[in-house]
Specification:
Length: 67
């Protein structure tokens, strides 16, 4: 299954994940952007990027607009 990351202008990344996949999403953001990720509760109703559970959290690279 390919991962569908929500990207914004300037290469910013947001990943919506369930509680089981937070660590995996943080690793992806750190590996790709070499920066500590932002982490907060998901503000939209969507599925986890890694499974079909409901996303509980949003992980983004630092500096992305999360609001």
């Amino acid at each position: 299954m390919s991962l569908l990351f929500l990207r914004e202008r300037g290469g910013m990344m947001k990943v919506y994940v369930c509680s089981q996949h937070v660590d995996k999403a943080m690793d992806v953001v750190v590996d790709e952007y070499e920066t500590f990720p932002e982490f907060e509760e998901a503000d939209i109703s969507t599925d986890c990027e890694y499974c079909e559970d409901n996303a509980a959290y949003m992980v983004a690279n630092t500096g992305s607009s999360t609001k």
